[in-house]
Every structure is written in structure tokens, then in C-alpha cells.
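Quick one:
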Amino acid sequence: MQSRTLRKSAFPNGIWEPEDGLRAPGLVPKLHFGTHLLLKLNFLFRLHLIQYSTYPVWMRSRYSITESEGLYFLTITIVDWLAVFVGTAPCEIALESLLFCRKEKELRLYAYVLMENHVHLVAEAPDLTGCVQSFKRHTARALINRAVSTKKDWLLHQFAYCRKAYKHNSQYQVWQEGAHPQLIQGEAMLRQKRMYIHNNPVRRGYVDVPEHWRYSSARNYELGDHTVMEIDTLPWLQKEEVQSPCGG
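Output:
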């Protein structure tokens, strides 16, 4: 039998493999004891997470809002990407919650789009984290109540299935954790995020032009239509970029 030479691979701590790249049957790579222990601990840790869904706080999918009054691009998503905002009634729930935050929590809203399973915002507030939490809390409660009243048991089942194990105060979970905030730094980034938001329905193939999507600030910018949701004007944008309600 022809002998085969082994070479050290790119893997750490002494994993050996044949020079031709083919591992013969029964040829077990030799692992350094430390590497073997780390791999085993990593496997057991991940198995525990999968079995009990008890992710520690530092592993939860949260980005942090580092500047309380900074301007942020936010993405707020329904659990499991469920198509919840279909039809007028659920969309009005989201809009009413945004309106509440604008009136009661000093939320300044500069761009938005409401899709069937997520919301994009460009916004700022003295307590933006509190605004996001209030928005989620109000919409979650209203969407659950509507699912109960309309007997959408399949949706309630999904909300219950997606609930994280550490959430002990609720039977359901409607929103994914966090809002993936991205601090907007400069006018160029603001324009890019606003364009991304407005083109979301176009990329999905729902409309041909952004302003045809009802639940989008593209209507405010392009048509001067503030009937669905009023937005705020950034002082450092050119005045003509957001038309007034009278079209001026």
C-alpha cells in the first residue's frame, strides 16, 4: 500500500490532512487537546441555545442607539417576516402609533415606508429608544387584539411560536428585537437612506414608481401629499425637496 504524506492544514493547532487534499476513510485528524476542548464547549453551548432558546443579553439581536438625539435609519421587522400589514386596518394601526409618537414623544419623522412585514424610518427624538419601544408595544397589542377578534388563529400561533423563552410577560411576540439603528452621518447618507426607503416597494415589484405606494413618504416628497402621514422637514435639506401640503 502506497504511503501518503500529511501536511499541516490552515486549521489551528495541528490538524493534519493528506497533501492531495483527500482524506482516506478512517483517517481521523489529530486535534490539539485545547482545540478539541474548545470545539466541544462551543457545540454544547450552541446545543443549549437551540434547546432552550435562552440567549444571554449580549447575544440578542440589538444594535444600540448611541446618541439620544441623533438622526437614525431604523428597520423594525415582524417576527419570522410574517405578512401582517396587509389591508387597511393593520396599516392604520402602525400609522396611528407613529402619529402618537410624533404628538406625544416628540418624534420627528423625515422618511418612512410601511411594507407587509417591516417598517423603515428615518427619524430622531429626545428619547428615540423610548419611541421605538412605545411604537412596538402599541402596535403589538393592537395587532394581537385584531387577530383575536378576526379569529386569525394561525397568526396567533405564529406569534406564540416565535416568542423568546426569556419573555415571560407575554404569550406572544409580534416584533423582532431591536430596530437595527444606523446613525446617519451627513447629507449624502441621508439621501441614500431616503432613496433606499422609497424604492423598497419598487424593488419588490409592487409599484412602478415610489410615490404610487400609499404607505410611503415618497408621496410627501414627490406629490406633496401629506394626507396619509405628515412628515418633518430637515432644515439642512433644500426647501424644494419636500413639497408643502398645498403643493408649493
